[in-house]
Structure formats: structure tokens, C-alpha cells
Amino acid sequence: MVERGGSAAVNLSRSVTDVVLLDGGERDRRMRRITDLGLPVHDQHWLAAPATAADPAAEPRAAAIPQAPLVLPRGGVIDLRMSSSAALAPQWHAIASWAPREHCEIDVVAFVLYEDEQVTFDEDFVFYGAPENPAGTVRLLTDGPAEQTIAMDLTSLPPASRKVVVAAAIDGNAMFGGVGPVQVTAAPGRGAAPLARATLDAATTERTLLLAEFYRRGPVWRFRAVGQGYDHGLDVLARGYGVDVTD
Description:
It is built from 3 helices and 14 strands. The chain is mainly beta.
């Protein structure tokens, strides 16, 4: 799938363009929703030759599908499209999603870092307890138990800020190896067609996971898929970035 320029979606999100049924897939509880959305459904042989197995009935819908996002590997980088006018610049969204888990709570957070890879103030740490920094340029949007978004007004960040790190942390003693793949997507605003997407699926015992970075390279902002994990909790990660965390 990746060799053909696509990626497997973790959830049935708006980025899904086709559904491939493996053995027993017809009994999946999401099939009703798939039918309601009119998504093309294929068997697993379609992966070998999707062009020859295309569904003609799906052609009118395909015309409305935006260009597929670039699929990035771990460490992959892409330049972000930015307007020369601050008023017209998009508010970039980093959207993290994973398969729902009943006994596992995941929190997505962000750190606004400066030249020394540290926050300047504790308020540069955006998380569920402080979902917005004082200037409102970085915000946490909770879209449900299995999808959360960090919204960023990059052009309005202070010139001295160099990077916004987006991370995820598991509450309690659970580990990301039990969560499965985490998908992170970069999109220029809510509902906009995503520019890039990465599926991070190599975690084992990690309890915190660096998902992505939005960073400056000269006058250009760039997006990097990271996928680096640590066995320690969110408090240790925050202290590493200079946040004064109260026990």
C-alpha cells in the first residue's frame, strides 16, 4: 500500500478514500457507516492491481476527492505552504488518531520551544489541564477518545520560537505497544485536505511518544514525522523541555 503512495488509516476518518475487506471484514461494525458514506469497497486482491479493479460507480465521487496526502516515514520532512500575508496564513493542525481502547487514556500535548530546545514559560506547555497558551497561538482540540488535534497559528508565534513539538502520553501503566499504530496528519486547518500523513507503529514499552515537529528552517516552516518514544511518563518529558512540573 505504501509503495503505491497510500497509507492504512487507523480510524474511519475523513481521509479514507477506499476500504479493503480482509477475511471476516464484512462483519465489522463500521460497515454500515462505510455504506452510508458511499466509500468504494474492495477485496484484498485489489491491493495488487487497484487500477484494474476500480469501481466505475465510484467515479463521480472520486472527482471530488482531494489529492492524497504525502505519506512520510519516520523522520520524513515536508515544507509547509504558507501565505505571505499573516491574515491569510492557514492555521495548521496536527491530528493524532489511534484505534479506540477501553482501558487506556491517551493525551496529546504540545511544547513551544526556543533556540535552546526549552520552553520560555510553563505556559508554553499545552495539555489537557491548560489547553491553550496565553496568546492562543497553540491550542488543544479534543475530537473524541481516539483523536485529538493541536491547532497552531505558526505565523503569529514569537520570532524567537523555533519549534512546536507534538507528543502523546499514556495515563497509568499502559504502554504504546498495546495501543498499536498512531497516525499523525498535518493539515492547513480543520476540514482541509491533509498535506502529509505518517503512521507510527514501532512502539513497544514506551509511555510517551514524540509524534511530530513543526519547526523553522530559515523563513520556511517544516513538518517532520518523528515517532521517538520513551519509557518515562509525561511529567519527565515536560521537565526535559524546561517545564516546572508540580508533583
